[in-house]
Amino acid sequence: MKKKTLPSYISALIPGLLISVPALWLAFRNVPFDDLLSYLASIRYFWLLPSLCIICISFSFRALRWQIIVSSVHPLSFSGAFHPLMIAFMMNCILPGRAGELARPLILKHSHQVPVSAGLATVAVERVFDLLLLLVFLLTVLAHVDIAADLNIRFEGFELNRDTLGMIERGMRRLCIILIAGIILVTLQKSRKMIQGAVAAVPSAFFFISKKSREKLRDKIFLPIADITESFASGFTLLRSWKKTGACLVLSAVIWILTALSYYVFSLGCPGIALSFPEMAAVMILICFFIALPSVPGFWGIWEAGGVFAMALFAVPRQEAAGFTLANHAMQVFPVIFIGLLSAMYTGVRISQISKDKGPGKK
Fold it and tell me: What is the DSSP string of 224-289?
């Protein structure tokens, strides 16, 4: 491998910085700095470092889980999983619609020639693990936490109550069922062949055009779409291995326990917050389901609304709940953005080199 010189490294770094500065502006522009700085001034910062360490460890376990999932399709190193994952989470923090989820399969395509459809399938499998674990945790919270019928929280234009939580729970349950059913249909060879046959037969419905045009439509559009289901199904290969599936379930539980632990450790240094670990875990779970609602990039506003609502269940005063949730939100998001930007600059050199190698005239 050719050794990089300092000028070449700097020339590769500059484009990354040109992307990083606007990205940081997008992330910070929705932050209410006055409230954040006021509460941050009262926090005992001794607890910030261990909480940040726990967050980093949890993302390392996320990368390990995705590495196991992708390795069922294509061999992948830990760093090969870690950098795309951090880039995706960084993009989710600064772009709407969770656009970062496309980053991982695209990077896999450039770096390991894994079909984008197969890469998307691995991300879908990962999300199924997360949804299943969070749904189980949420049902446990609903079974053990009494939510008053008249509890109604208004925060930054959001209105949250027991009905809102029930709506989110039902929506997540339906989504889990749909995802699992879709995975089963695509993974089973018989049902997959039926889907492919149905897609390939679509052009015959265009009876009003010539036979030649229908054949061209089938060959150019619908047959390639049918073929995509094969590579998409390969992304679900992991589910055929009970050992790997079990490992991913265990890792998913560890990931969410560590995330809840980061909330709890940080709360130890926050005035007015005296929740136990199980109670803080319940707060985290409720926030996760509230941010499933449409929101701005980085979930600013809806995250805080969910935190105030969740902590009201445990009689935490509104002012302290809002201050803690805002500060904790910043602590959870900004390190991810920072690490993601570093990963983007690091992998950007490799992606651009691959693009050059595959340019016109290259063999």
Answer: HHHHHHHHHHHTTGGGG-HHHHHHHHHHHHHHHHHHHHHHHHHHTTSTT----HHHHHHHHHHHHH
CA separation (Å) from 251 to 50, 64, 128, 275, 297? 21, 8, 13, 25, 27
Q: Give the pLDDT confidence of 278-300 residue by residue, as tens digits.
A: 889 889 988 887 777 666 667 77
Assessment of whether the complete model's pTM goes beyond 0.85: no
In 3-state terms, the chain is what percent helix, strand and coil (to 5)?
A: 80, 0, 20
Domain holding 123, by residue range, is 32-350
The token pair that represents 43 in the structure block: 């926090």
- The total of structural domains in the chain comes to 1
113 in a domain, yes or no?
Answer: yes
246 belongs to a structural domain: yes
Residues contacting 121, CB < 8 A, separation 6+: 186, 232, 233, 234, 235, 236
String of DSSP letters for 293-339: S--SGGGTTHHHHHHHHHHHTTT--HHHHHHHHHHHHHHHHHHHHHH
In a domain, 110, yes or no: yes
61 inside domain = yes
Q: How far apart are CA 139 and CA 132, in angstroms?
A: 11
